[in-house]
Amino acid sequence: MKALAHYGTHILSTGSSVPSICVTNHMLSDTIDTSDEWISSRTGITERRILPSNQSIIDIATEASVEALNKGFLKAYDLDLILFATSTPNDLFGSASQLQTSLGATQAASFDITAACSGFVIALTVGHQFIQTGMYRNILVVGADTLSQWVDWSDRTTCILFGDGAGAVILQRSSTNDILSFKLNTNGSESHQLRISCHTSVKNHATQEILYPQKLQHGYQYLTMNGKEVYKFAVSAVPASIVKCLNQINIDTDKITWLLLHQANQRILETVADKLKITDDKVISNIKFYGNTSAASIPIALNETFNSGHICNGDIIAISGFGAGLTWGTILMKWNIIQ
């Protein structure tokens, strides 16, 4: 069997999009028993964006993707593969094909990756593998979620946390490799700590059961979360994952230029940074403005930080996602600007 080629993966460009509707903590305090001080002191969140009823996840995913394509000087037909990390698709069968159509990326294969808040990191590693083997040259990786549709807006323990958004990154085959190391993990025994469960009931057709198969009635519940357990999981698993990635390439934490974690809770960001002895000025955070946007949080923050001019050539970025599953994953990347 012919050996697979090994190419490098270059982070070519980024993009992001958030809905226009802004819901502040003060607005929430008008409908539920909460306050701006209560929310912001516990989460770091002051507002979040919510998708209007006349838009879909494909709209914001398309906007994020178009920005990435434009910045990378590519056309949609240059894409070989689209990886759509989302847990809130338009269609239970997946929405990557809808995104492909929206972009006009007629040459691109496409499929969804469902891994909640870890989804974007996992999708990046999948794309990295396709490029390393020489299978594809240009891959669009999109993280997008609209969890506002899945929270109970009368439950102040969950509805205050989540917002909607989309982010995109284009990976390109290169002679150099921007992905330095990665580590993915799952602990399914703790899946009950954070989930949107599906309850199924069976309707029997007593006298016609043989002729007519049983009909299944499906109903997804609101998002439920054990906040204390998720916090304990994150501040334990994430630092360990980052250290393992550092050990793979024999570098210390002081070589990290930026720490970019899934934007779940400001306290989690601060605790993980403290455990790794990473100073606050190296921690990327935009949770104040968007809340937890699930698979979108990392690419949105990455794009905004780059657009603001803070990420420079040669910077080493530790990226870590964590969430439902329970799943978590880390990527160490080196930011290379190819002239």
From TrEMBL:
Superkingdom to which the source organism belongs: Eukaryota
Subcellular location: Plastid, Chloroplast
Protein name as it appears in the record: Beta-ketoacyl-[acyl-carrier-protein] synthase III
Role: Catalyzes the condensation reaction of fatty acid synthesis by the addition to an acyl acceptor of two carbons from malonyl-ACP. Catalyzes the first condensation reaction which initiates fatty acid synthesis and may therefore play a role in governing the total rate of fatty acid production. Possesses both acetoacetyl-ACP synthase and acetyl transacylase activities. Its substrate specificity determines the biosynthesis of branched-chain and/or straight-chain of fatty acids. Catalyzes the condensation reaction of fatty acid synthesis by the addition to an acyl acceptor of two carbons from malonyl-ACP. KAS III catalyzes the first condensation reaction which initiates fatty acid synthesis and may therefore play a role in governing the total rate of fatty acid production. Possesses both acetoacetyl-ACP synthase and acetyl transacylase activities.
Reactions this protein catalyses: malonyl-[ACP] + acetyl-CoA + H(+) = 3-oxobutanoyl-[ACP] + CO2 + CoA
Alphabetical list of SUPFAM superfamilies matching this protein: Thiolase-like
Record GO biological process: fatty acid biosynthetic process
Recorded family membership: Belongs to the thiolase-like superfamily. FabH family.
Region described as ACP-binding: 263-267
UniProt domain Beta-ketoacyl-[acyl-carrier-protein] synthase III N-terminal: residue ranges: 111-188
A GO CC term attached to the entry: chloroplast
Subunit comment: Homodimer.
Listed HAMAP family: FabH
Primary location group: plastid
EC number: 2.3.1.180
Annotated ranges, domain Beta-ketoacyl-[acyl-carrier-protein] synthase III C-terminal: 246-335
Annotated keywords: Acyltransferase, Chloroplast, Fatty acid biosynthesis, Fatty acid metabolism, Lipid biosynthesis, Lipid metabolism, Multifunctional enzyme, Plastid, Transferase
Matches recorded under Pfam families: ACP_syn_III (PF08545), ACP_syn_III_C (PF08541)
Pathway info: Lipid metabolism; fatty acid biosynthesis
